[in-house]
Specification:
The chain is of the alpha/beta class and about 325 residues long. It has 13 helices and 13 strands. Strands 7-6-8-9-10-12-13 form a seven-stranded mixed sheet, with helices on both faces.
C-alpha cells in the first residue's frame, strides 16, 4: 500500500513538472529574439512605389557595416489605408522589433499609437514639432527622432516660386491630407504665405487616391491658377495619377518631392528625400548601439533643390520666365 501511494506521488510530481514546463515554454519562445537586431519597416502604399526609399535605407545600413540576413534583419509591413497602417504597426510591436523605421508623419503617427517604448526613426517628416511627435528639435524627448524636411517652413518659398511661374494667378489650390498629422500645419503655413503674396488660398482636402478626381473638378470649378501639394506619403505613392490629372486639367503644380516631378508634375522645391532616407540609417545604428531617441537631436535638411519638368510645361502651354529657369537645379525633359 505504501509503495502504491509512493508511486502515485512520484507520478503526480512528474505530471506537475511536465505541466509547468509546458506552461513556461510558450513564454520562453515568445521572448526569444533573432540573434541579429530587427528593423520594422512601416510603409504606406506598395513596396514598388517606395522601392527607391527601401534601396536608400539598405545602402545607408550597408555603409555602416550592416548586411541584411547576416547581422541585421528587416521586417516589412505595407498598408493601403490608415486603418491598415495602424494594424501593421501593431504587428511590428507584437514582434518586439528593435526599432521601427517610419519615414513620414503618416507612418510615425501610426507607430506612435502602437508603442511609446520601441524607438521610432523617421527620415522625411514634414513637421515633427508642429505635429507633437517630438518636444523640440534639439531634445525630442520621447521614443521618436530622425530627419525632417520642415515642410511648413518651405511652403512660403514654394508658393512664391509657383507665383513666379504663373504671375497672373490670383488663387491657388492647396491639396492636403487631413488624416496626415503634418497636413493642417502645412495648410496654415500656405494660408499665411498666400496673404503675404496677395494670393487667395483654396483648401482642397483629399484622404485617398479615389478623392483626386473630385478634387481636380473642384479646383477647375473654383478657377485656381495652379495648385500646391502638401507632401505626404499618399501624394508620393499616387504620383503618376496625380501628375496625369494636373496635365489633363492644365493646372500648373508645385510639389514637395522630386519624385512627383519625375512622374510628370511641373515643379518641386524640396531636399533630396532619398538621401535623407539613406542618412536615417545613422539614427538606427545609434539606437541599436544603446543611445536613446530622446537625446538624439532631429536633423533638418539643409539643401533644397528646385526641379522643373520642361516636358510638362510644354504640355501645359506654359512659358516659364528665363529667370525662373535659371534658378532651377534640375531641368527634366
Amino acid at each position: 500500500m505504501t509503495a502504491g501511494i509512493s508511486g502515485a506521488v512520484v507520478r503526480r510530481r512528474d505530471f506537475i513538472m511536465v505541466l509547468a514546463g509546458a506552461a513556461a515554454w510558450p513564454r520562453t519562445a515568445k521572448a526569444q529574439k533573432p540573434a541579429s537586431p530587427t528593423i520594422g519597416f512601416l510603409g504606406f502604399g506598395t513596396a514598388s512605389a517606395s522601392a527607391n526609399r527601401v534601396d536608400a535605407l539598405r545602402a545607408g545600413l550597408h555603409e555602416l557595416g550592416y548586411v541584411e540576413g547576416k547581422n541585421i534583419n528587416i521586417e516589412f509591413r505595407w498598408a493601403e489605408t490608415a486603418d491598415e497602417l495602424r494594424e501593421r504597426a501593431a504587428e511590428l510591436v507584437r514582434m518586439n522589433v528593435d526599432v521601427i523605421f517610419a519615414t513620414s508623419s503618416t507612418e510615425v503617427g501610426a507607430a506612435r499609437e502602437a508603442t511609446t517604448m520601441i524607438p521610432i526613426i523617421f527620415a522625411t517628416h514634414a513637421d515633427p514639432v508642429g505635429t507633437g511627435h517630438v518636444t523640440s528639435l534639439p531634445r525630442p524627448g520621447g521614443n521618436i527622432t530622425g530627419l525632417s524636411v520642415m515642410q511648413s517652413d518651405l511652403t512660403a518659398k514654394a508658393l512664391a516660386i509657383l507665383k513666379e511661374a504663373v504671375p497672373q494667378a490670383a488663387r491657388f489650390g492647396v491639396l492636403w491630407n487631413p488624416t496626415v498629422p503634418s497636413g493642417r500645419p502645412t495648410l496654415q503655413s500656405a494660408e499665411a504665405a498666400g496673404a503675404k503674396l496677395g494670393i487667395q488660398i483654396y483648401s482642397v482636402p483629399v484622404r485617398a487616391g479615389k478623392d483626386f478626381d473630385s478634387a481636380f473638378a473642384t479646383m477647375v470649378r473654383e478657377r485656381v491658377g495652379g495648385f500646391f501639394v502638401a507632401a505626404s506619403t499618399l501624394t508620393r505613392v499616387e504620383r503618376t495619377p496625380l501628375a496625369q490629372l494636373a496635365i489633363r486639367h492644365r493646372l500648373p503644380s508645385m510639389f514637395g518631392t522630386r519624385e512627383n516631378v519625375e512622374a510628370g508634375g511641373l515643379m518641386s522645391y524640396a531636399p533630396d528625400q532619398t538621401e535623407l532616407t539613406r542618412r536615417a540609417a545613422t539614427y538606427i545604428d545609434k539606437v541599436l548601439k544603446g543611445e536613446k531617441p530622446a537625446g538624439l537631436p532631429v536633423e533638418q535638411a539643409s539643401k533644397y533643390r528646385l526641379a522643373i519638368n520642361l516636358g510638362t510645361a510644354k504640355l501645359l502651354g506654359l512659358h516659364l520666365p528665363p529667370t525662373l529657369l535659371a534658378l532651377a537645379d534640375d531641368l527634366i525633359d
